[in-house]
Design a protein that fits this description.
The chain is α+β, with helices and mostly antiparallel strands. Helices cover 51% and strands 16% of the residues. It contains 22 helices and twelve strands. Strands 5, 6, 7, 8, 9, 10, 11 and 12 form an eight-stranded antiparallel beta sheet that branches. A two-stranded antiparallel ribbon has the order 1-2. Helix 6 runs parallel beside helix 9 and helix 9 runs antiparallel to helix 10. The radius of gyration is 31 Å and the shape is elongated.
Length: 614
């Protein structure tokens, strides 16, 4: 083949690659490949923390207005609540369904962004850069591994580019149906995520900067007609919704120092590094989640690279400054302000600042801004402030470095058990409840912290709420041992049911049982007990039913004691070096006494014998 023929073939290949069909095909391939890549992560996840509370709430009643419109610590998300309500009725913890929905929504989000980029910039190779950024950035990965975040944010990541795309079509065609579609997509976003009201704001800035002015009175009135009712409902529900603390939401602002530190950390420790392939290192929060932990040196290096990129774009690209101002404004209003209303005080500026789920949905906006700052719009006149630099392939090394960092960061995040151990606990507990007879008495303790933190979720972190919905028949749940409870069971740390014992101090039975009547009988303790909540287990032989009265220091408690041979449990909070007993209604003959806390008997039979998947 001659040199001329080879040159001609290369030119034809370049033309094909530049053609719209080739760019569209490559974009679709990129979306598909990232789905395969992310599914490897998603399939290893399971429900966690808030997920159990949301599903339990959905199982408590009908799909009512009060259920859907309850604001959960600042989040109005009736769409997500509707999904949780349905999820509870489709297998309770159906992780296969959750994984399928997550990947399906992720696919739709990628396609929606591809549509927006094609509408704005045309089907040219340059749009593959912002698209590739969105598909690869680790910014979205922690949120993708948490079902509650998936159900809340991924529909928004679909609605945002779809709404903006329809708005672009309206500005170019004047057809009002496109404005109605943009408003409809905005409403869909607001049904799921509290940041969706900023979509019309993005459309406004996009219009004044790149789409030819703001003389679109009808469309702004339409958008206002969407935002005003939402605002009325949101603020009404915000101050009337009862939180898990049984109190209405009371917004509070942190000190200026805490607010500035939290915003700076979220910007430099989360948004900027993940926009460049970071955070490269993670700080585990339990076994199934992690915060970003960008090394300080890489944090400053990322900030320097971002400053260079912004500077170059502003010097060469017209209105690039407006694109970056758009991103900064969205970050401050949509990402920073919500966490200032109570969450920073609760979590602290460092924990809040490195929590990537607070900026996960911002990846769509960053992708859009990258395009606006570096790529001329379709048909845009005079896009450059000065002659364009002939460095079309400068994106290649940048993209390679970004992709390598992203793959490294995502692999580092996935290098942990993720949902494996929580899934084992839940499935083991479900199997245990299915194996015991209906009416079995189970002490309703809190699940381990790895499943749900009691300090955050209160009674929704109890076994009756987390595992109870999986039981095929009725279980007799007891929050507290009191009275002559026969053969109570308790969950162990692996999710198995075992016989219950009182773990603590034992006063052994004497050669003959000790008669206890109306007058106190004192039993010295082997060692003094500090002030705490205790359960006292008294073994007895009664001729008739009585009431057992217990005193520990100045604290007293009582519980019924049955007839014949048995044991009763008396809850008491106190401290002391002796235990005093007396009865009312008859005389008991007391044997062994135990004082402590309920715990699983490790030498007792376990149901099931081995943990599921353990």
């Amino acid at each position: 083949m001659t040199a001329g023929a080879r040159q001609g073939r290369l030119e034809r290949l370049r033309e094909r690659l530049r053609s719209g069909d080739a760019v569209l095909a490559i974009g679709l391939v990129l979306v598909a490949v990232q789905l395969v890549w992310k599914f490897d992560l998603v399939r290893r996840t399971f429900f966690r923390q808030d997920d159990f509370m949301f599903i339990a709430r959905g199982l408590e009643g009908p799909l009512s207005w009060d259920y859907l419109m309850r604001i959960d610590f600042g989040h109005l998300m009736p769409g997500a609540f509707g999904i949780h309500w349905a999820m509870g009725r489709l297998g309770v913890y159906n992780d296969v369904l959750a994984h399928g929905l997550a990947i399906g929504l992720q696919a739709a989000a990628g396609l929606a962004l591809l549509r927006l980029l094609r509408l704005l910039f045309g089907t040219r190779p340059a749009i593959l850069v912002p698209l590739g950024f969105y598909l690869l950035t680790p910014m979205t990965v922690p949120g993708l591994s948490w079902w509650a975040v998936v159900a809340e944010t991924l529909p928004f990541q679909i609605a945002l580019p779809m709404a903006l795309g329809s708005h672009v079509l309206y500005t170019r065609t004047g057809l009002f149906r496109h404005a109605v579609a943009a408003a409809g997509w905005t409403v869909l976003g607001m049904v799921f995520f509290v940041k969706a009201p900023f979509i019309p704001v993005l459309a406004f800035v996009l219009t004044i900067g790149w789409l030819g002015g703001v003389r679109l009175r009808r469309v702004w009135l339409l958008y206002l007609g969407v935002l005003v009712p939402y605002a009325v409902v949101f603020f009404r529900q915000l101050f009337s919704s009862v939180q898990l603390t049984n109190a209405a939401f009371e917004p509070s602002l942190p000190s200026a120092e805490v607010a500035v530190k939290a915003a700076w950390t979220l910007l430099t420790g989360s948004l900027v590094p993940t926009s460049l392939g970071g955070p490269w290192r993670w700080q585990p929060i339990g076994e199934d989640y992690a915060l970003g932990a960008t090394p300080p040196a890489l944090m400053w290096a990322s900030l320097a690279v971002a400053v260079v990129a912004v500077t170059v774009s502003v010097l060469w690209r017209r209105r690039a400054w407006l694109a970056w101002l758009l991103l900064l404004g969205y970050f401050l209003l949509a990402d920073v302000v919500p966490i200032m209303l109570g969450r920073v005080e609760l979590l602290g500026p460092d924990l809040s600042g490195f929590e990537l789920r607070y900026v996960s949905s911002t990846a769509v906006v960053v992708a859009l801004v990258i395009g606006l700052a570096f790529i001329p719009l379709q048909g845009e006149e005079r896009p450059w402030r000065r002659p364009a630099i002939p460095l079309k392939w400068v994106w290649a090394p940048v993209a390679v470095v970004f992709a390598a960092g992203s793959v490294w960061s995502v692999a580092a995040y996935a290098d942990r058990p993720l949902g494996r151990n929580v899934k084992s606990y839940v499935e083991t507990g479900a199997q245990a409840l299915a194996a015991v007879p209906a009416g079995t008495v189970v002490l309703d303790t809190f699940v381990p912290d790895k499943v749900a933190f009691p300090v955050f979720f209160y009674d929704y972190a109890r076994h009756s709420r987390v595992l109870g919905p999986t039981a095929p028949h009725a279980i007799s749940w007891l929050k507290q041992l009191a009275g002559p409870v026969a053969d109570p069971l308790i969950f162990d740390r692996q999710g198995r049911l075992r016989p219950l014992r009182i773990d603590g101090v034992t006063i052994p039975a004497r050669a003959a049982c000790v008669p206890v009547g109306r007058d106190e009988v004192r039993f010295p303790l082997p060692a003094p007990l500090p002030d705490a909540e205790y359960t006292v287990q008294v073994s007895y032989l009664n001729g008739a039913e009585t009431t057992m009265n217990v005193r520990l220091g100045f604290a007293q408690g009582s519980a019924p004691a049955g007839r014949d041979l048995g044991r009763t449990f008396v809850p008491v909070r106190g401290a002391g070096n002796e235990l005093a007993l007396r009865t009312t209604g008859g005389t008991s003959c007391v044997g062994e006494i135990r004082i402590g806390v309920p715990a699983p008997a490790e030498n007792g039979p376990a149901i099931p014998p081995q943990p599921v998947g353990g």
